[in-house]
Amino acid sequence: MFSPVLVFASIFSACCLATSTFGATLAIDEVEALKSIGRTLGKTNWNFSVDPCSSGDESWANFAESNAYYVNNVTCVCSSIICHVVRIALKGQNLSGTLPPQLTRLPYLQDIDLTRNYLSGSIPPQWGSMQQLVQISLLGNRLTGLIPEELANMSSLTSLVLEHNSFSGNLPAALGNLPKIERLFLNSNNFTGELPETFARLTTLKFFRIGDNNFTGKIPGFIFQNWTNLKEIRTLASGLSGPIPDIGSSGNLEFLMITDLNGVESTFPRLSNLSKLEYLILRSCNLIGKLPTSLENMPKLETLDLSFNKLSGEIKISLPDVKQLDLSYNNLTSTGGVDDFLMAISLWLNFPAILIELWFHYTSALHSFYINCGGKEETINNITYEADPDKVGTSTFYRSTTHWAFSSSGIFLDDHTEEDVLVLENKQLSSSIGQIYSNARLSPSSLTYYAFCLHNATYSVSLHFTEIQFTDGKNYGSLGRRIFDVYIQGKLELKDFNIKDEAGGAGKPILKNFTANVSDGTLEIRLQWTGKGTTVIPMRGVYGPLISAISVFDPVYKPQSESRGGISAVAKVAIVAAAAFATFLLVVGILWWSGCLRRRSTLERYLKGIELQTGSFTLRQIKDATNNFDAANKVGEGGFGPVYKGILADGKEIAVKQLSARSNQGNREFVTEIGMISAVQHPHLVKLYGCCIEGNQLMLIYEYLENNSLARALFGPEEFQLTLDWPTRRKICIGIARGLAYLHEESRLKIVHRDIKATNVLLDKNLDPKISDFGLAKLDEEDNTHISTRIAGTYGYMAPEYAMHGRLTDKADVYSFGIVALEIVSGTCNTKHNRVKTEYFYLLDVAHRLKQEGNLLDLIDPRVASHCNAGEAMVMVDVALSCTNPTAAARPSMSMVVSVLEGRASVSDILTDSSIYASKFDAKKLYGRVEGNDAENNSQVKSMLRDGCTDQFMPGPNNQRPKTQINHTPKLTQMAQYNWPKQPNDPIT
Hints:
Blueprint: H1 4-22, E1 25-26, H2 28-41, E2 71-78, E3 82-91, E4 111-113, E5 135-137, E6 144-145, E7 159-161, E8 166-170, E9 183-185, E10 190-193, E11 207-209, E12 214-215, H3 222-225, E13 232-236, E14 255-259, E15 266-267, E16 279-283, E17 287-289, E18 303-305, E19 310-314, E20 324-326, E21 331-333, E22 345-346, H4 351-361, E23 368-373, E24 378-380, E25 383-388, E26 396-399, E27 404-409, E28 423-425, H5 430-433, E29 439-442, E30 446-451, E31 457-465, E32 484-488, E33 491-497, H6 499-503, E34 510-518, E35 523-528, E36 546-547, E37 549-553, H7 569-594, H8 596-607, E38 615-616, H9 619-626, E39 634-637, E40 642-647, E41 653-659, H10 664-679, E42 688-694, E43 697-703, H11 710-715, H12 726-746, E44 751-752, E45 761-763, E46 769-771, E47 778-779, E48 786-787, E49 793-794, H13 800-805, E50 807-808, H14 810-826, E51 831-834, E52 839-842, H15 843-853, H16 862-865, H17 870-883, H18 894-901, H19 916-920, H20 923-936, H21 938-943, E53 944-945
């Protein structure tokens, strides 16, 4: 397709010949219009002593646009007598006026380009009458206000570029009526609201950008379904939420960039028919699961950025043509060979291993360090800032020759250069603000500095910044906005940090001071761009986090003075070596005498062959964190022992599971749990920080989850229940399903949990679910079946084939999940014990009876029934009933369950005939038979838990209440007819 600009150039060339031959001039009314337009724009150097359309040396028209940033052009089309203005291009002219309504007086105007100026005000609604206008570009100005809906009247408009201004408000729905629009650039403004549904009609759209705004709602599906001509889409920090819709209908797509989505986690969108895709950037989109193999079916893919997600599993895909790959900040693993097909890669999978190597490489620990980022070595006030001048590329890890390193990820887009400039210098500033502020290191996405071999202490951290690329004054170079976040030790310290605003102008230094606890010898300082700010002012490729210098020191440490004379260096070495050897012999003797070494050798036999991917803690650290296992810090009982809350020296909250080491069997179970948990990591599995094996102490250290268990939140003591609205319950159910799908199908080790129940689902501060207690888990055998002589599970949650015959497959977990899903919908515990009649009642029986009676909606918890989505609730119940099919083979896989719950598959795909339930299966009868069998098999009795709803977690340290309190629980009147027996602290009244 021919560019309109090229067409104009061709027309103009012909017209210049006509002008020189026939002497055609610009229409007088258009000359007057240009004078008025110039005054409004602040264009003072137009020379009206010559005809604007003349072809002489003083012509206004200059097609030698060698510098795309600075253009000063008026283009005409001429007949033999008269000329008309068809294009005005004033780029980079530092115009400080407003947008002229007088443009409507140029009836032949087709293209207006006012890119990179200092214009203010709003878009005149009168522009809507210019139906001949083809292109509008207002990029990089100070424009404000709403987009006039009158622009929708421009029936010829193909390009509307409004990016990098301060427009606000909702997008007019009328813009969906533009019949020929191909380019719509709206990024870096203050737009709000949802994308209008009328935009589904923009089927001619090819290029779409809406990043750095405050939109709400989800990414509309029509973007990829209706816009079949789409070649490029960019939504960087747009404010929109996920999940990302399926992209399979966008066969013409060449550039796809979506970053920093709000909303819940989601699996990878369906990627198919993308044979033309060259750039795929889905950064910080809350993606979970494995890397899809469909990535291999993109023959033109050159850049792939999936950083800052929650992807997991082993990297098994092959991408031989990809030149830029960034998979950093995920939970991915690699068995090697990934680098063989990459020119640049950023994985950061095994950074702890790198630190271990560095610890052994250096023999001394530090109390301070100073870095001149992007510059040479400088000494200021007797402090030496180490040089950091290396111009390494993006997506790289650089290690200095001393005690620090840095990583950079991402690539600058659209800068049209072979190499990205990551070291900046402004010599004009060095004399006025100091050497360390005249240079800086820049990164397109994430810049992280690491310090290692530090003494454990609380450090003072000072970060030095100066904006050396943007300018001050009334020019377009002053309109640049650099916005990024600052993390120290993983904690967000500065959100949406803007150097220029904080310092009060460009070229002015600013120092930001923090404190950081170092407990493992390492310090991490991360600067992260999240898609906000300008990306093309004053030029392309200058955005992203920037830093000038770093100062870190221990304010308490005082260097010891050197000894004057005395013992020689050789003697010192000999004394230290002898003392160390003697100490070693003494420690070995004590440990052997106490039996610790003998016990450790036993543990080592169990550890053999298990690949541990976790850290270790000392008993001293754990005692300090838990105040010597103070009873006030006890928060519950785990699968093998008590659980304590603790706080490490760096302020991190932990949960410590203390296990007994009474026998080799206990040791073996402990090691099994370590091995399995360390091998699997997923957003919906409780994270293991490490373990402690010291003397007779066996402990696991987990992340601490503020909101305790799902059981306590739903049907615990009333004062500890949480307000779980319907969207939250649905999110919890989907999260549990995702966690199980990972264990069964995505993890390198296929795992059957064996005891899924509400007490084994914990809730974090955002009420996101995490599956806990892998102590009862079982590695899946090759035939996907395990016959167990030791049944480990809970009454009411165990699948029939497992409870009766010990036959264990992943479908046993599917059954248990179905029970938990029913509990989430109903807000009622699965099993209810009538102490008078010594009977159990089961929620599953109630659900089937309600279904047979056609009253399944009565199952919904009255606390949410009035404002829940009945359709979603019925889908969840139908899924639960399919999962609890008495025939294991008829139950769906957990990945299929996730697809149905998320709406990517139909519930009819998994529905089975549950009418057989009443005749072939009854939970009450089943567990009655199991209990009878247990009397004959005491080993099973000991390993089966009686009540899956009895929440073993304590109220918490100092009996604190949860952060979110529930209102008084209403009566569950709809289910009263089924004679649920009342229990103490039961929410059913």
